[in-house]
Write a structure and sequence with these properties.
This protein is about 40% helix and about 20% strand. It has helices at about 10-30, 50-55, 65-70, 75-85, 150-185, 195-225, 235-255, 275-290, 340-345, 350-360; strands at about 35-40, 45-50, 90-95, 105-115, 140-150, 235, 260-265, 270, 295-305, 310-315, 365-370, 375-380. Strands 2-1-5-4-3 form a five-stranded antiparallel β-sheet. The structure holds adenosine-5'-triphosphate and magnesium ion.
Length: about 400
């Protein structure tokens, strides 16, 4: 039997000190907002922190696995090999797409490390641990990979690019029509009474479209501005419906569409910003009339739903919307039938404005519809005074 010398009080306090240091470092690693992964020189994972698990949506334990099983990206793996051979830190922007619902973008800082006796294989070396030596290609024991999440930045850039492309595209059609027809007028058509008036009407129609587009864009940017403060006041839903009806009645009459209103008794007032809510209802009714054939029917219902929210439904018996488009129609510029909507003067911004306003009201909006069976657009609002829920 071998006997071990009793630890001296000095080595005991050193151990305590080391244990404390290790604890602090582990806490730091855990709480760090960037994802961190530490691996040895063979690419085997020694440690990952919580942020990395969340970012890479890791469900299983990965310590002990190879890095390439977790970060499957050829550029990343090449960069890591370069770090081991050169002992220089490398920064690489990585995109992970396969196996993720949405692409993940991150900046990987791959830092070579040399911690004698800790990460390398073989006997622990009796060398002072601090300060860390700068590793050389021969002494790289592993690396620390710091993953800085830039997904939001890249997605915002992509959205901005798409937005600019969409706006330019929307501007081009009316602008080229105005340019073409006015040139034809200038080239002599102005003296031809048979076509002159028609051409001027076309120019006028396209200029109205441009105005509508600019107004919708201004509305969107106002809603998105951090300075925009809606004025939430107790608002009569019945009063709101009546006001909006006067605005859309002419359009409905033109198509002989009958609009009826059903409001449940004792409906509480909603906590709402009146003018933006008018816009919500106007846009929904405008769609209901636009996408319903002549002599159709539109019904507006308002009631207190099972969850104690005020629910407004705009129901039409028009062309309906295939369920596969339901999640997309609230996106900017999205139209189910592009040509048809444009022909009707639509910009494809109406529902995205509606969604924005409803969300600012802490409400929800959704559509229920099937092709050819009409559509029901519903949104909810908070009652000005929380309503009593019906007893189950
Ligand atoms: N009640 C409805 N019935 C059938 N389709 C609808 C209805 N409401 C919306 N849609 C579809 O959703 C698309 C998006 O609607 P949205 O209101 O955002 O744009 P728009 O009506 O084309 O143009 P605008 O910006 O002038 O409102 C429409 O193009 C249409 O295809
Ligand atoms: Mg619309």
């Amino acid at each position: 039997m071998t006997s071990h010398p009793a630890p001296s009080s000095k080595s005991f306090s050193q151990l305590k000190h080391l244990f404390r240091e290790q604890h602090i470092l582990m806490m730091l690693l855990k709480e760090f907002r960037d994802g961190i992964l530490i691996c040895d020189r063979h690419g085997q994972i020694l440690q990952v922190n919580r942020s990395l698990r969340q970012f890479l949506q890791l469900k299983d334990e990965v310590v002990g696995q190879q890095v390439e099983a977790v970060i499957q990206n050829p550029e990343f793996l090449t960069a890591m090999r370069t770090v081991f051979t050169t002992a220089n830190t490398c920064v690489e922007e990585i995109t992970l797409e396969q196996g993720y619902p949405q692409p993940l973008f991150f900046e990987a800082h791959i830092v070579p490390i040399n911690i004698p006796g800790f990460l390398g294989s073989g006997e622990p070396e009796v060398r002072p641990i601090m300060p860390l030596e700068a590793p050389s290609p021969q002494t790289v024991d592993g690396c620390v990979i710091i993953c800085h999440d830039i997904t939001d930045i890249r997605q915002t850039e992509r959205m901005r690019r798409d937005f600019v492309a969409n706006v330019s595209h929307e501007l081009r059609t009316p602008l080229s029509a105005i340019e073409g027809y006015s040139e034809t007028l200038l080239d002599g058509a102005v003296d031809d009474p048979a076509v002159c008036l028609d051409f001027i009407k076309v120019i006028h129609r396209h200029s109205l479209r441009l105005t509508q587009l600019v107004e919708d864009l201004l509305d969107l940017s106002k809603l998105e501005s951090p300075d925009y403060k809606p004025e939430f006041l107790p608002t009569s839903v019945e009063g709101l419906i009546q006001q909006v009806l006067t605005l859309v009645q002419d359009k409905a009459d033109e198509k002989k569409i009958q609009i009826s209103v059903e409001i449940s008794d004792c409906l509480p007032r909603a906590l709402a910003d009146l003018s933006s809510l008018q816009q919500v209802l106007t846009n929904l009714l405008d769609n209901a009339i636009k996408y319903t054939p002549t002599e159709g029917r539109v019904v507006i219902k308002a009631r207190l739903n099972e969850r104690g929210k005020i629910q407004v439904d705009v129901i039409d018996n028009g062309m309906g919307i295939d369920p596969k488009y339901h999640s997309r129609i609230f996106e900017r510029f999205y139209r189910v039938d592009k040509a048809r909507s444009r022909e009707m003067g639509g910009t494809g911004l109406g529902l995205s404005i509606v969604k924005h306003i409803v969300q600012l009201h802490n409400g929800e909006i959704w559509v229920e519809s099937n092709d050819s069976k009409g559509s029901t657009f519903s949104f909810t609002l908070d009652p000005a005074v929380p309503a009593d829920l019906p007893v189950a």
